[in-house]
Amino acid sequence: MLGTHDLALFVLSGLLLNMAPGPDSLLVMTRSATQGWRAGSAAAMGIGAGTCVHVIAAALGMSALLATSATAFMIIKLIGAAYLLYIGISMLLTKKAAEGENESANLPAQPYGRIFAQGFLTNVLNPKVALFFLAFVPQFISPDAEHKALSFLMLGAIFNVNGILWCHLLALFADFARRRLQVGNSAGLWLKRGIGGLFTALGVRLALADRI
């Protein structure tokens, strides 16, 4: 189909890879747990938009540049790491609400447009995503495919749709857990700080990652 092969295996592998914990899923769950599933959905759509950038860039050969240029890889990697650290440290520095304040004061709602932008930047500034598409997607493109770029775009679109669906499931699950558990002010504060710590660790890990 359009120069591809083993499409079922590609879909299954993509789903398993999307389920692996990472900064994208953490962002979706954080926003859903603090503001509801619609906020998680906004983050998921932003992540999907970021993935589109990676797919198009990889199809045009820009991911090859990241794989061969140490300078380009380092610059994008450090920008992505800095953004993750910014998110993580902001959560770590969250202060406990004064007595009598409700949870929404401690975890202020953000406009969906801003949450979308956070999802977009979290994904698009992660060079590991670009390298993933460069390494993974071509395995399912036939060597004799007439239009390899179109094959790449089609597989990338399939992967992205599956990823968006998975992120929406995470958003619904996190919102359901929030409503059922009724996390209080103090517990919500420490939950946010804990997730902030995970974002910070991911940022450090990304900054120190080897070029593989």
Quick structural summary:
The chain has helices at 7-19, 23-35, 37-59, 62-68, 70-92, 103-106, 112-124, 127-136, 148-181, 185-208. The chain is an all-alpha fold and 212 residues long.
Q: What distinguishing features does this structure have?
A:
212 residues, mainly alpha, 0% strand, globular
Q: What oligomeric state do these chains adopt?
A: single chain
Mean pLDDT: 78
Q: What's the main sheet like?
A: none
Shape: globular
Note the run of SSEs as H and E: HHHHHHHHHH
Strand content: under 5%
Compute the number of strand runs. 0
What Rg, in angstroms, do the CA atoms define? 19 Å
The figure for the number of domains is: 1
How would you sum up this structure, described in words?
Residues 97-107 have low confidence and may be disordered. The protein contains 10 helices and no strands. It has one domain. Helices cover 77% and strands 0% of the residues. 39% of the residues are buried. By secondary structure, the protein is mainly alpha-helical.
